[in-house]
Give the backbone structure.
Amino acid sequence: MVFFALLIACWATISKLGVWDSTLFPSPFQVVKTFWNGIADRSLLIATGASLRRLLLGYVISLVIGVPLGVLLARQKWADETIGLLVLGLQTLPSVCWLPLALLWFGLSDTAILFVVIMGAWLTITTAIRDGVRNVPPVYLRAARTMGTKPLSLYLEVLLPAALPSLLTGAKLGWSFAWRSLMAGELLFVSIGLGHQMTMGRELGDMSQVITVMGVIIALGLLTDRLIFAPFEDQIRERWGLTAK
Amino acid sequence: MAGISICGVSKKFTGRNDAVQALENATLEIADGEFVVLVGPSGCGKSTLLNIVAGLDVADTGQVYEGNKPVKEPGRSRSVVFQDGALFPWLTAQKNVEFGLKQMGLNRKERAERAAHYLQLVHLTKFRESFLHELSGGMRQRVAIARALAMEPEVLLMDEPFSALDAQTREDLYVSLQEVWERTRKTILFVTHNVREAVVLADKVVLMGIRPGRIQTVFPIRLARPRHAEDVDVAKVAHQISMGLKESLALTRNEEYDEGWQPEGSGLLRPADSVLGDNI
């Protein structure tokens, strides 16, 4: 807390000194004012809502594709040698590279952005899950087999829980990749959303608008981490005995 | 109830450079309710044999029968206790014991009751809500035994279950295991490299030899129970078996180690503080 207060104090001092023009380097107060204006005329809320909707939809679809595929790649050699190689190759491609293709296929639409988000997230999720499932000690599976575990339960009650820590890592990575892809997509073409708000800020020479949006993105990222991922992580750490005492 | 018949079982493992005959023509009868311990140096195929009996590995030739049914795959009638327990770290002790029961299709209440009963048998009632990292190595192994027993199998297969534990804990578990066996009278096949452990536990010690892995000698043990590792009789019998083990070990050494290796060292015992002319 003290750290952040100091940081903001530094920022305020530098802008007070007037080294740079205030349109290029706004003070914290200007940013807070822009933020409130955005809330008051609802433009910021609408933009955030639109971005989050795309993000969540894209993310959920990525999870639905990525998790089963990751498990398949880890368990089936033939799949890993074919699809696995493809996934590895595609992963080297930054997701924005899909934007031209998406625009041609889906036009200037929400679907195009959604496509870019999904392309950014599912590959990462797949890879993380694949590695996690692969590292599950084989003795768990042997033990489960001696207890008469059927194939479906073997996946649902042994493999997935055993891979849960890496499953969570995959989910987190996927989330951040989805965000990146979303922003790249929204910055590059105009439709309602946080990226669009930033482009507007740049075009109108309104630096405080740009910084406000950046702040909102950071806040959303921190919030999801604290409220959604962190409790899961803590629970896993506690169960597996990974907490430092 | 059923015993186990192992009939002419062979198994070869093909490595990167060579093939190893892990097990050659092993034949052994285990009577119903008998406690049999396989003992031998590493590489004698004792774990391989146990895995084949469990149905986790498949023999190249030969067949294992449970009663008169041939063993083809893992089954609930043969529970395995693994070397490191192989318990699931995402479940509590109680849920670990319940895991197999759930696979059997028992309902929640039956599972809870049966798991509680077997946890009590290994004296872990107080720890049933604990996760694995909260338990000591010996407690974990006891949970693993409870998990195997809760399946109410005909046969209990134990693959070096105590080898990672300290001597004191092991001694406690010898007592617990003998007590559990006397109460339940399960057929037990137990694998270890520790001769003393074998003599403490077994009705019948099966000494295995190496290269190729094979059954060498069977020693019936007729000592009163409960036995303890420090009993004089146990030491005496263990010594006889160790002699047999040393012979087969000498063979391996010739094959595996560099020349000039002296297994016995020099035959003389010297005082530890003797100065052997180091100020000359």
